[in-house]
Amino acid sequence: MSVIVIEFVTLDGIVSDPDGSGGTPHGGWAFRHGPGTVAGDKFRLGAVLDDGVMLLGRRTWELFSRLWPGRDDPFSARMNAVPKLVASRTLADASAWQNSRVLQGGLAEAVRGERRDVVVTGSLSVVRALMAEDLVDEYRLLTFPTVLGTGERLFPAGGPPAYLECLSAERTGAAVLSRYGRETDPVPAP
Predict the structure, then answer these.
(1) What does the pLDDT read at residue 140?
(2) Distance spanning both ends of the chain, measured CA to CA
(3) For the chain, which terminus, N or C, has the lower number of CB atoms within 10 Å?
(4) Rounded to two decimals, what is the model's pTM?
(5) Listed residue (182, 180, 157, 185) closest to 167, CA to CA
């Protein structure tokens, strides 16, 4: 089992409001590059969506539950079919999006007990909770040529260091998809 975090991110590390749904002053920054840059399986999830499970925070789940069920292209069919776990203390009913259920109990315990690969989409509070427990195995970041200067960062200032290994990088539309995993062969400090 692996935990894979996928995020749209700016060059300066901002992950908040890439689609503009949050109503922030600079929201929608990812979508200004056109639908081709964000559409489809840009994160190269493939079979992970067929065999894994998605983990979403309540706000991301609510946004996605209004967006994905009405779509019928092949990638949307995968998104609708994948089992979805919602980390929320307030959501009681997850029936708005098929194959969704609200997590019972603690987030870290649920992830540790999961046998399938877990894909965390957006959901910054969930990502940070998993980071704090050292449960993230891979980051797949779609980095856009945008600098915002303000907003929520994936890796917040003052957070612990993270030593990662670049697994791959490729251009996709106006953005670059980078995959980072846990450092497997750390270089000793000088």
Answers:
(1) 97
(2) 34
(3) C
(4) 0.92
(5) 180
